[in-house]
Amino acid sequence: MNKEVITGTLTTILLTLVWCVLNRYNIDTQFIVVDMPLFFIMYWLIFMIGTPLISQGFRYGVKNSLLKKSALPAFLLVLYYGYVWINGQPLFEGASIFLFYFIFFPILAFYHRPRNFRTITAIDFLVLILFLLPITLVKLPEQTAMPLDGYSFDSMYRMLILIVTAYAFIVIRRLPDVGLRLEYSWKKAGVTLWVWLVFIAGIFVLGYFMDFIKIGDRSPVDLLTIEKWIGRFLSILLHTALFEELFFRGLLQNMLSKKIFQTASPLKYWVIGGSVLIVLSLIVGILMADGWVWFPFLVAFLLFAIAALFSGLFSGLQHHYLSLAITSVLFGLVHWHGGSVIFVGFAMIGGWAYGYVYWRTKNVFYAAILHALVNMSPLLLGLELMK
User: Fold this and answer.
1) What is the model's pLDDT at position 216?
2) HSE (CB half, 13 Å, CA atoms) of 311?
3) d(CA 352, CA 339)
4) CA distances (Å), 104 to each of 78, 96, 351, in order?
């Protein structure tokens, strides 16, 4: 059997066991008969659909038939609505009518796309935007946490979106280098670790001396605390980090890098991307009406300046650094909901770190692990953001 299939299957089994341990006081008949099999199926698909063996197998199986290409999304919808119905949640009410759009839109859009899969076009970005915006803006009325009552890493809805996204862009669109591949590598783990340490050290020094961060009290570490940390880490990794890293790094940064490399005039990406995002950073800071309104603007300017510097120093890597800067600043700006301009600025810096790990490892999972480690750092180190 293929090594990646074995790795993904064993990882899914281990994750399922950890999930069961965290839910050991909530296990009942429905948990065993319904929740556990669905949990295993969904995460196995998330871990495996981006591997070459599985994605090529799907691609070969569906070929040019739209009906066959719609089979997996339709199967996932059956699982989703079955879970919703079993748990007594509302069916086809309110914003739920958009679910069919979420599932089938990217499949239909890429089905009619030109077959030159290595060339990135405006259609690719348009499909990503028209798919991602409704996902983030529309709130479905049903609850789909798994289990519904208990310790959940994620929801059926988010898992469904992850799988459909990977299926649409990797299998149907055949986008190279998405990096949704579960692999264990000491080298890639080392890259993730040193970037995390450098990021935390830099943020701590910057935040501490500029009075952004303080060291708070930390509870004693015991087995119960460690169990909570493990559960919290997996929740962040699977619910937040993997979702955001797939869209921002595996898709957006990946496509931007390829598009800039393929274009005859990358200057327009510097001018439009840099000027628009830097101005937006200033506007966001002003609208948030915080005392540090200049902070997102300063961080955005510095990230583009660093990208320009490195592009000059390292010939042939302009497309990587420019796409990294654009994606990082955009990533920070969409975190305005955090309510703090300092948080927005730190998210931009974090976006650079996540994007760098993705670039160096060619793997979304390592970027997501770094993302989860960064989000866990205040809890692990006892840090508090002051502004």
Assistant:
1) 64
2) 20
3) 21
4) 14, 14, 29
